[in-house]
Amino acid sequence: MAVDAIRVIIKGKNLDITPSLREYTQKKIKKLAKFFDEPREPLAEVVLGIEREFHVAEITLQVGGLLVRGEGKTSDMYASIDEAVDRIERQVRKYKTRFQKRQQGPSLGELASNGALGGSETRQDNELTPPRVVRTKRFAIKPMSVEEAILQMELLGHDFFVFANAETEEANVVYKRRSGDYGLIEPHF
Question: Fewest CB within a 10 Å sphere: which of 56, 98, 117, 188?
């Protein structure tokens, strides 16, 4: 893949993006191209902003159907960008080796069918104010295996992930349990 093969979109949040900041961000993100041999052009969405007294850099890299997210939060915007790119780089390296190791052991789907995954946890909130929806996200749901969904969840750094199960063609949720294992929620009508 050519070094300039990542399309970069940079947005400012409570911050004007200077030409030098834009150039630095593009240069750092384009170094990530070496990790991907995807025929389609990867897309990196970068949100640079100031929250309270911190400079925050949020980078979401989309390569094919894969999403990788990194965030940096420091007192310097350039350091925040470096931190976010470093996090993405570590995640990609970690999961490239996990892809290779996955071929050798039992699949997560087999573990799920053996009962190693599953169950539910309850959570009690004793707050007096009712919770409210503060953010809504919309995204296209791509059919994938449970194993792919867990990988995608880990790459995004989330505790859960909603996906279309390729086997059942239904919406499912995978989530990380406190024990470090994973749970799978399947609808039952």
Answer: 188
* Residues sharing a CB contact under 8 Å with residue 106, sequence separation 6 or more, in sequence order: none
Question: Can you give the CATH number for the domain in which 112 is found?
Answer: 3.30.505.50
Q: By mean pLDDT, which of 73-77, 90-94, 105-109 is the weakest?
A: 105-109
Domain that holds residue 72: 7-102
pLDDT of residue 45: 85
Same domain (yes/no): 56, 82: yes
pLDDT over 60 (residue 186): yes
Residues near 146 by beta carbon (within 8 Å), at least 6 away in sequence: 108, 109, 112, 117, 165, 172, 174, 184
Give, in order, the Cα–Cα distances in Å from 131 to each of 81, 122, 135, 148: 32, 16, 12, 31
Same domain, 78 and 112: no
Q: Are residues 22 and 80 in the same domain?
A: yes
Structure tokens at 26: 């593009």
